[in-house]
Amino acid sequence: MMEVEKLCEMLKKTQEPKGYYFSRDKERTFELLDALITNRNRYGYMVCPCRLASGDREHDVDIICPCVYRAPDVKEYGSCYCNLYVSKGWLKGKLPHTYVPERRPPEKIK
Predict the structure, then answer these.
(1) For the chain, the helix, strand and coil percentages under 3-state DSSP, each to the nearest 5
(2) How far is CA 13 from CA 17, 50, 51, 96, in A?
(3) Residue 21's Cα: distance from chain center in Å?
(4) What is the pLDDT of residue 1?
(5) CA separation for the pair 89, 31 (Å, rounded)
(6) Residue 83 gets which letter from DSSP?
(7) Contact 52, 83 (CB under 8 A)
């Protein structure tokens, strides 16, 4: 089994009971998971693939996946910023698949 598939299975087991699911777009999901693995290899931690990491774990702690913004994003929009994690309602098409704005404070994005 590929590393991406292993990560996918592990995260499904830990996150689905919490109400967080992967999008049905398997290709996109695997791209994001592969980027998480790349970031783990690069920085030593799985930082959000949709944000620019600094390489300083303390500075990046808010964007280590699952990031601190996931819960409010999924609650409000049905999806996190990356669309990696989504709600059951989002999966079932009960919520519009709209753009999720960046919640990370501008001073952290440098």
Answers:
(1) 50, 5, 45
(2) 7, 23, 25, 26
(3) 10
(4) 64
(5) 23
(6) S
(7) no
Residues (pLDDT < 70) of the chain are 1, 110
Hey, what are 73's tokens? 């994003």
pTM of the predicted structure, to 2 decimals: 0.92
Q: Which residues of 14-53 are buried (b: 16+ CB within 10 A; e: fewer)?
A: ebeeeebbbbeeeeebbebbebbbebbeebebbbbbbbeb
Which tokens go with 47? 């930082």
Model confidence pLDDT, tens digit, residues 35-51 = 999 999 999 999 999 99
The torsion angles phi and psi of 21, rounded to 5 degrees, stand at -120, 160
Amino acid found at 37: I
CB atoms under 10 Å from CB of 100, counted, come to 19
Q: Hunting for tokens 């690069």 — which residue is that?
A: 42
Q: Label residue 59 left, alpha or beta by phi (over 0 means left) and psi (-120 to 50 means alpha).
A: alpha
43: which DSSP letter? H
